[in-house]
Amino acid sequence: AMLRLRLLTWDVKDTLLRLRQPVGESYAAEARAHGVRVQPAALSRSFREAYGAQSQRFPNYGLGQGLSSHQWWVDVVKETFRLSGVHEDGVLTSMAEKLYRDFCSARNWEVLPGASETLSRCCQRGLRMGVVSNFDKRLEDILCQCNLRHHFEFVLTSEDAGFAKPDGRIFEKALRLGGVPPEQAAHVGDDYSRDYRAARAVGMHSFLLRAAGEGEEPRVPPEHVLPTLSHLLALIEK
């Protein structure tokens, strides 16, 4: 039976947009501009460590602990460089501020194949759309610069909501913004627990973007799996 969907919510990172190059490459280029030589692979490893530690200590950008998302990110960038052996304070601050601004721009992000076309076709079919993303407030800008913002009625980030996926309250807030009951909404994302399972837990439909053979995660019914974004319309219109 055709799903009676009125609202689609979308994850962004690795669903609609992806980084143009590994974080370590961007950070290494910024270091070079400051006369500092660091290996991209080392920076990528350091970033994972710094980001992981900061996320544990200060979940959702430390909002509940008095941090701003800007400060949260500046600290992650500085710690990434420190772990890679760069310790000069002035240089760290300068690089961190510059990288924070750069990751706002389309320079660092690219639209995934099929994303623009799929969003346009969903709009043409009268589906209302919104974003539900564990992201900070730069996301509006990024979506505008990548020419995707106009597809969405709302952009709900974990910073705006005060809750991060898989917390069901961010999805409940999205449903209120869309004015639609959960059974008339579906979420599209690439993460099993934060996107697929979390949306289903609040009663929404859900589609998992997963390249063929990628990740031996818990079984997901094949009709909920998208090998590419272009498969979405066929599944919705079944």
TrEMBL record:
**Xref: Gene3D superfamilies:** HAD superfamily/HAD-like (3.40.50.1000), Haloacid dehalogenase-like hydrolase (1.10.150.720)
GO CC, one annotated term: nucleus
Which regions span the lipid bilayer? none
- Give a single Pfam family match: Hydrolase
The text of the family note is: Belongs to the HAD-like hydrolase superfamily.
NCBIfam families on file: DREG-2, HAD-SF-IA-v1, HAD-SF-IA-v3
Name under which the protein is recorded: Haloacid dehalogenase-like hydrolase domain-containing protein 3
Q: What's the source species for this entry?
A: Eurystomus gularis
* Gene this protein is translated from: Hdhd3
